[in-house]
Design brief:
Blueprint (H helix, E strand, L loop, with lengths): L1 E9 L2 E10 L5 E5 L6 H9 L6 E6 L2 E4 L12 E5 L10 H6 L6 H14 L15 H13 L5 E5 L7 H18 L2 E6 L2 H7 L2 E6 L2 E6 L1 H6 L4 H7 L3 E8 L2 E4 L2 E4 L8 E6 L4 E5 L16 E10 L4 E7 L5 E6 L10 E6 L5 E4 L8
Parallel strand pairs: 3-8, 3-9, 6-7, 7-8
Antiparallel strand pairs: 1-2, 1-4, 4-5, 9-10, 11-12, 11-14, 12-13, 14-20, 15-19, 16-17, 16-19, 17-18
The structure holds adenosine-5'-triphosphate.
């Protein structure tokens, strides 16, 4: 499935702003972004329940919609699964799953049984939706959408109505069924964890535009800007001023060659990429090429979070705060002096807000 330069305007406001995207068979692409950024609208346009103001949509190499020509939703070979999955209450599970199927009775029955068996619901084949739990209804909705073997599956926050533990299980199950069926999947979510868990490819959306697209690993490890970095985890921001192509910080100098003298830069580091060392009578560890210079800081607060500890430090250098996570129980007393080192290969350097043009 490919969409090219999709634009959708509501009442003078451009909600989807020149979005292009490709989703390949057998791949899950997550459209990830904060509430209101235009994800659902993009999905609705692809499904054909809404129409773009400009741009083209292709499925399997064929144009299904531009601003003149339009294939109706039911002929786009698209399966839909939305948060309010709305099974037909007056139809049995078997009838729900068979709803969009064509072919002989026996063929339909075979497909229905095969899918229900795949999601462990064959025993509920003659039940009605109200007799099923939320998770079971969700699985019926999934196989109902997949039954006619759509080329594209469009899923809008399909797991958000489920409680946490059930959600993880259903996500994993759904993912393996989707992979077996081989459809191209576009899944909308506002949860970074869900995207990291499900996606082969993430398209990060913001203010109607795709801010960045790539494999989860790349998006996480090479964010395009500060907001993209901050979307996936807490971040620390170390601000500095460029002088002679270098920026001086508590952790030593950083090369910032793309930035003009006098402009401000933000050096971003995630809390798990800061190392902690002990104070040795006022001295810290020696500098290394990997971490640069260590900087002294004082513990302000320490909390155990379950799988890790979060320690907040106040830097001697300039009084700013840094957050550090440690994958263990580590609860130093407030006021304890320690030394911090940052993994330089995990730092991202961006122009500070207001200094973007200078870069
Ligand atoms: N039919 C419509 N008429 C007018 N405005 C609309 C319409 N549909 C959506 N919008 C507006 O477009 C913006 C984007 O909505 P959309 O549902 O695409 O966002 P989203 O990223 O999916 O958010 P969420 O995760 O909250 O669903 C919102 O501000 C919404 O109010």
């Amino acid at each position: 499935m490919e969409i090219q330069n999709i634009i959708r305007v509501f009442g003078g406001r451009t909600v989807v702003d020149d979005v292009s995207l490709k989703v390949m068979p057998g791949q899950v692409t997550c459209l990830l972004g904060p509430s209101g950024c235009g994800k659902s609208t993009t999905l609705r346009v692809i499904a054909g329940v809404d129409m773009q103001d400009s741009g083209n949509i292709f499925i399997d190499g064929n144009l299904v919609c531009d601003t003149v020509f339009r294939v109706p939703p039911e002929r786009r070979s698209v399966g839909l699964m939305f948060q309010d999955f709305a099974l037909f209450p007056h139809l049995s599970v078997a009838e729900n799953v068979a709803f969009g199927l064509s072919g002989s009775r026996a063929e339909k029955r075979r497909r229905v049984e095969q899918l229900l068996e795949r999601v462990d619901l064959l025993g509920h084949i003659d039940d009605y939706p109200h007799q099923l739990s939320g998770g079971e209804q969700q699985r019926v909705a999934l196989v109902r959408a997949l039954a006619p073997r759509p080329k594209i599956m469009l899923m809008d926050e399909p797991f958000s109505g489920l409680d946490n533990r059930l959600r993880d299980e259903i996500r994993d199950d759904t993912l393996s069924v989707l992979k077996e069926e081989g459809a191209a999947v576009l899944l909308v979510t506002h949860e970074p964890d869900e995207a990291m868990r499900m996606a082969d490819e993430i398209a990060l959306m913001r203010h109607g535009k795709i801010a960045q697209q790539g494999a989860p690993y790349n998006i996480y490890n090479a964010p395009v800007d500060r907001a993209a970095a901050a979307f996936f985890s807490d971040i620390n921001v170390i601000r500095g001023k460029v002088k002679n192509l270098l920026t001086e910080t508590a952790f030593g100098q950083f090369l910032t060659p793309a930035m003009p003298d006098g402009s401000e830069v933000d050096i971003i580091i995630r809390p798990q990429h800061i190392r902690i060392d002990f104070d040795r009578n006022g001295r810290g560890p020696n500098p290394t090429p990997e971490t640069g210079v260590a900087a002294r800081a004082v513990v302000e607060r320490a909390r155990f979070m379950g799988s890790e500890s979060l320690v907040e430090f106040r830097m001697d250098y300039d009084g700013t705060m840094l957050k550090v996570t440690v994958p263990a129980v580590f609860l130093p007393r407030p006021g304890t002096a320690m030394w911090l080192m940052i993994r330089r290969d995990r730092c991202f350097v961006f122009p500070a807000p207001g200094h973007e043009r200078a870069a």
